[in-house]
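[stage:ingest] chain + small molecule (adenosine-5'-triphosphate)
[stage:ingest] validated
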Amino acid sequence: MPSSAMPATGRPVDGHAPLAISATRLRKSYGDKLVLDGIDLHIPAGSVFALLGPNGAGKTTAVKILSTLIAADPGSGALHVGGHDLAVDPQAVRAAIGVTGQFSAVDNLITGEENMLLMADLHHLPRREGRRVAAELLERFDLVEAASKPASTYSGGMKRRLDIAMTLVGNPRIIFLDEPTTGLDPRSRHNMWAIIRGLVADGVTVLLTTQYLEEADELADRIAVLSDGRIAAEGSAEELKRIVPGGHIRLRFTDPAAYRHAALALGEFGRHDESLSLQAPCDGSQRELRSLLDQLDAVGIEADELTVHTPDLDDVFFALTGTGTGTGTGTGSGTGTGTGTRLPDQQTKETVR
Ligand SMILES: Nc1ncnc2c1ncn2[C@@H]1O[C@H](COP(=O)(O)OP(=O)(O)OP(=O)(O)O)[C@@H](O)[C@H]1O
Ligand SMILES: [Mg+2]
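[stage:predict] done
[stage:export] tokens:
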């Protein structure tokens, strides 16, 4: 949905979901360092939006502003969260949201249950209600056994679960998760994804930041890539993958003679003499793959290894943020997603002769 079709007030347009979060020309500088250079975010209610970007891109800064912890610069446009104007009614915004910061809010000196009850007090829940909510969340986050132990004894994954459970005490309809799975092992990360999906199934809106492109791919309806204070691209994972040049097939040989024969037979392929590999653009379809294998069969050659690479979010990230070398081989320049994004010129990708 083009962002221009959505108002900043949180009202639905043309039957679309209302906006849970909307920011226009969001700006923030620290001294003479410009961190956010007028970004626009329009996040429909009940969706997951991922903010991706390298270290220092301004993800936490955006989360802090939208959750009222710090102020945007004057000159920013309208900022609405949960239908409330941040500049006019920050208290109403606070009542509508939950925030799990990049760094844990868990108090290590008290137990998990005491942390939960502290949050219930902060939300002014009546004592009995606070105990009920705490018990229910501890159960839901698989922390019943650990509930009476000091949080200092929890593993990183348990602490992160407690952190999010604490965020949910006030039953917020919009939650900010700043790098919810950083430092978690793969199983804990998958558990956290299940928790986030559960929240979304309940109609909660989630704005998450992440360093893990796979995480954005798994969870997010829309993804924005922050780079140099601006949104370099925004779209669904599929839309973003389309802006980097395509996939390829790579064939590797151990026998130099077979490699040379294959290179001759397949003429137009990219050669990489050192690794005895050949590479060609491919959309990953069965048809293209079959055609290639048929050509090899025709000259009686078999590759020792065949890999099909389709573009992933890593490719998008590297292409848009210019932070390193991806695993892909794109060489062309892409055109935009629905937002009209263009790839910057500085693609830093492995190229093969
Ligand atoms: N209070 C502050 N004073 C001065 N500079 C700050 C302050 N907070 C953040 N910055 C700077 O703003 C930039 C953006 O920081 P931010 O924490 O938003 O990045 P981030 O995208 O969350 O990075 P990371 O992935 O490392 O968490 C960085 O250059 C940081 O040094
Ligand atoms: Mg951060």
